[in-house]
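Posted in: Protein Modeling Q&A

I'm a second-year student putting together a small comparison for a lab meeting, and my supervisor asked me to include a predicted structure for RNA polymerase sigma-70 factor, ECF subfamily. I've never done this before, so apologies if this is the wrong subforum. The sequence is pasted below exactly as I got it from our records. If anyone can share the C-alpha cell output, I'd also love a short note on what stands out.
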Amino acid sequence: MILEQLIHECKVNNTKAQEQLYRLLAPKLFSVCLKYSRNYEEAQDNLQESFLVIFEKINQYKNTGSFEGWAKRITINYVLQQYRKHNVFEIISEKIAEEEEVEIDDDNISLEFLTKIIQELPDRYRLVFNLYVLDGYSHKEIAEMLEINIGTSKSNLARAKAILKSKIESNNSFEVKKSK
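Accepted answer (user: helix_wrangler)
Welcome! Here is the predicted structure, written out as C-alpha cells:
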C-alpha cells in the first residue's frame, strides 16, 4: 500500500492501516525517542504515546511536505511536552560559556558509548544538545520549543558539550590505561 493510501486509511481509523504505518515509521521514530529520552524504556513509552498523538492528529496532515517529517515533529514535541510538565527547565542564572568544539576520534568511541553518555546528560542539557546538534534547530527555535530564553539554550548547549567532552576524555584515558 502506498503511503498516501495508508495515510488516507488511517484518517478513517482503519486499524490495519494504523498497524502498517506504525511498522513503517516506528524504527525511525524510536531512534528520535531514544535521543530525547533518559533510557530505552522511557523511549518505548514515548514512542507509543507519540503514535497515539499521530493517529489522533492525522486529519491535520494536509499531504504537503514529508509525512515522516510531520510525524517526527509530533514525536519531538510530545517528548518535550513531557519534560515541560515536570519543570525540567526551571530558570537558573547561568553564565554562558564559550562554545567549544569537541573532537571525537571515531576509532575509539562506539555509537553505544556516545548514546549512553548523551542519555546520561541532565534533561535540559540533553534536550538542547539533541535539538541543536543532532536535529539542526537554531537557538531561537529551541527557546520557543522549550519555552526558555535563547541565552539559556546557548548555556545549556555549552554545558552539555563540556560534560560530554569530559566523559569522552575520561573514557579515552581509561582505554589508554587499559591497553598498556
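A couple of things worth pointing out for your meeting: The longest helix spans residues 150-179. Helices lie at 3-11, 15-36, 40-57, 67-85, 111-119, 123-134, 139-146, 150-179.
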